[in-house]
Amino acid sequence: MQCSWKFMVLLAVASIAIQYTAIRTFSTSRLGLLCLVGLAPTGHAVNCSPKDLAQVTSETLEGYGCDDIFSHTSSSFPLHTFDAKNRTHILILATTRSGSSFVGQLFNQHPEVFYLFEPLYHVQLALLPRLTQSRNLTERRAMLGAAKDLLRSLYHCHLNSLESYIQPRPAKHSTDKLFRRGASRSLCSPPVCEASLDPKEQSLVLADEGECVRKCGPLNVSLAADVCRAKRHAAIKTVRIPQITDLRALIEDPRLNLKVVQLVRDPRGILASRIETFRDTYRLWRLWRATGRRPHNLDLGQINTVCEDFLRSVSTGLARPPWLKGRYMLLRYEDLARFPLEKTRELYSFLGLVLDHSVEDWIINNTRGSSDPSSRQKFTTARDSAANAENWRVKLSFDMVVYTQTACQPLLGLLGYKTVFHPRELRNLSQSLVEDRRFLPFH
Ligand SMILES: *[C@@H]1O[C@H](CO)[C@@H](O)[C@H](O)[C@H]1NC(C)=O
Ligand SMILES: *[C@@H]1O[C@H](CO)[C@@H](O)[C@H](O)[C@H]1NC(C)=O
Ligand SMILES: *[C@@H]1O[C@H](CO)[C@@H](O)[C@H](O)[C@H]1NC(C)=O
Ligand SMILES: *[C@@H]1O[C@H](CO)[C@@H](O)[C@H](O)[C@H]1NC(C)=O
Ligand SMILES: *[C@@H]1O[C@H](CO)[C@@H](O)[C@H](O)[C@H]1NC(C)=O
Prior knowledge:
Oligomer: single chain
Structural class: alpha/beta
Bound molecules: 2-acetamido-2-deoxy-beta-D-glucopyranose
Distance between the termini: 28 Å
Helix content: 40-55%
Number of helices: 25
Radius of gyration: 22 Å
Strand order of the largest sheet: 2-5-1-6-7
Number of strands: 7
């Protein structure tokens, strides 16, 4: 069943397959796949014989599984580079404005974790340049094959796979175009960044993303890959994977030892935060707030997509299917905001990693009380976190809240976010709208 819709997706967006193919090196089966959809590029000696097609079809539908339609990396490089058993690979599955930068820091600050901030940005930009905010499910899913392929490579420290998507294409494995390079400590510290050899420089470079980019010079991707290999673990944060089931093939891959932390947040909080951040995209919502009248052409899909993706993922996770055993943890942003240290300890215990004191120090410095202005800029959501997590209650109008909670009703119930029925209830911050719930990982 899963196969058939994925196949439809493939047919519908074959043009993406072609771009993807142009980006990566050709492999027989992929060419076969293009034959299959009648889109084999001319100028290549492709034999679209029935035999080839049969082979590709069976390979696609059975051998690789449909999840891996685009994924051919497994044959293009050796996978047993290191002892997978000792290496934990972490994925932060999130959506924009759900607190994912903060959660990313909980790994970025760990000296034994190689952390990458949103590498899939480059996949989206290369394959769907005009659709950076695409909510079209068909289109989003079309990117997934490429995205998963890249994730697998990155966890194995084949960072050069990422080069294929960076524009302009890096020469000699050197680039200054890596998205948010400064968000990754490993990429701003020696040996990747020699500018920060002086301890004073180093703390400056690590405290400020812009400083890292300015002081460290172009990124040597080969060197970064060496560092990735030298670290015990790797963590990747992404807002570009819609649902947990999209990751099933990676989770089930024993070589990968992948553990997923799904970060969720009250959709009303996400909405309020997006309205502030993505001012153009959410212009009509601001208009609604300003005028008190809902614009007729308001794009309701913007919030519906979040709620649908969350609902499907969380329902799957809470149903505890065998393939998620020991591999899935649900984390509510509000809980992390209220109990950052306690929740971080839970997180590390789920991952089976030792929580380093530098992570704890970072939490203490960045959750409340610190007066360091550079970190305040970046983590306003983290600062005085408990209050901030619920400050949407004074930022959205009552109508907007009612609309959102109606659209997202089943999700709110599932995650323990209370609905409000009266403006007085909404604005009375002494009453939390977050129910006490524990979502424990299962083993
Ligand atoms: C792998 O982990 C085990 C147990 O934690 C440890 O004894 C062993 O030394 C580790 N191996 C390597 C290569 O790090
Ligand atoms: C989504 O994208 C597909 C492929 O580009 C297109 O056929 C379909 O009409 C789009 N759906 C919506 C709702 O825009
Ligand atoms: C990048 O680092 C590698 C070592 O991993 C080195 O051999 C190479 O010369 C460096 N490239 C540049 C452009 O500095
Ligand atoms: C926390 O703040 C103290 C004092 O400003 C500073 O010395 C220390 O390096 C900070 N630690 C982290 C991990 O940010
Ligand atoms: C806010 O809620 C608290 C706790 O339920 C209640 O005691 C208080 O009277 C409420 N304040 C207002 C202004 O309604």
